[in-house]
Amino acid sequence: MKLENKVAVITGASSGVGRETALLFAKEGCNVVAVARREERLIALAKEAEEKGYKGKILPFKGDISLEEVNFKMIDFAIEKFGHFDILINNAGLMDNFAPVDELDSELLKKLMAVDVYGPAFATKKATQEFIKSGVKGSIVTIASIAGICGGKSGCAYTMAKHAVLGLVKNTAFNYRSQLRCNAICPGGIATEMVSPETFANASQKGLASVMLANQFQTPMATPLQIAEVALFLASDDASIVNGAIVTADSGLTTF
Questions:
Q1: String of b and e for 212-228 (b: at least 16 CB within 10 Å)?
Q2: In this predicted model, what pLDDT tens digit does every residue of 42-81 receive, in sequence order?
Q3: Which of 117, 161, 199, 244 is a good FRET partner for 168, with 20 to 30 A between their CA atoms?
């Protein structure tokens, strides 16, 4: 087992990549604190891991990661319940409506930055403090997006947020290179709730047309499990030499 006796906190664990990562980690022997706002889904997730006989246990933690205190409490909860803390997966995120900057909605921008940037920043701050205090050489993995390395993959707000969070990853990796590893995954399209018909129904038509032009060379969409498997590699000792990496997982979309 790749994560036996490890303890992880995973945000956005009620669906999609977060859910699959929680199950995969539990299967690999990791005890998991699964964080999201939809508590009923977290309870079902914990029950599923138990019914499948996974060695790792999943504990639900209801919370909104846009709030600094929630990020601190979820890691304190992991330490309280399991005695230590080894891995942070910053997965929770919001998508924008593909709007370019002239159509930018200030309230949407504030909400998206709070979840996609401030949340990972607060969680990374707390995780780093705990790794320094405990002497554990921990691992932080942030699920970002190819919108963080390109300009034409989403709307202005989401593109801004994902560029910002990659800055967080690189700065943390450099400053705390002897105490932890900090890496990011940049997926392309993933078959999750974020790409539901409702997302596109409310999209800026101008922005969406621009993104579709940039994505005209179609590539296979990833499953949540495929991204979870990349997260497993980065979180595990298999990636012991990997720090500050921005790993694209986009079926080659950014090669065009």
A1: eeebeeeeebbebebbb
A2: 999 999 999 999 999 999 999 999 999 999 999 999 999 9
A3: 199
